[in-house]
Amino acid sequence: MSLLDREEETQRVLINAAMMASDISCRTAWRRYTEYTGMVDQFGISAYLAGLVALPVEECNLLAHAVNELIDERPPPLKAPHRGPTPWSLGPTSGGEHDKTRDELLTRWLMDTSAETRYRWEQ
């Protein structure tokens, strides 16, 4: 396996990993990719992601860019809040829009998921 083949395979695997970690479908990634003048059809992108075909480096980079843009558009993950003053929370507070976004995400999560989903126990 040449260095170029190894780099291509690494990029393909990492694009797949990023899509899976961010719950981005192939169809969604392909749509964004075509908005950036991507020339490969959805079947070709699926075949590339499955490791069945190679794509020109420009097309791979365009797909990576599309996936990264989709990831950047996602809201940040919800973090566990602290109660009361803590050494790391005594600095200036962000408040405002950040708190509103957090509250909206929390409300959506509580209203749109079942208790079984919210409290999954690993066995």
Our measurement of the CA-to-CA distance between the termini, rounded to an integer number of angstroms, reads 40 Å
Major beta-sheet overview:
none
Structural class: mainly alpha
Q: Residue-averaged pLDDT, rounded? A: 81
Number of helices: 6
The geometry reads as elongated
| Helix residue percentage | 55-70%
Count every beta strand, where a strand is a DSSP E run of 2 or more residues. Answer: 0
Strand % is under 5%
Order of helices and strands: HHHHHH
- Radius of gyration from CA coordinates: 20 Å
Which ranges are low-confidence, i.e. pLDDT below 50, for 5 or more consecutive residues?
none
Give a written overview of the molecule.
The chain has 123 residues and is mostly helical. It has a domain of 71 residues. Helix content is 60%, strand content 0%. It has six helices and no strands. The longest helix is centred in the first third of the chain and has 19 residues. The chain is elongated.
Identify the notable features of this structure and list them briefly.
mainly alpha, elongated
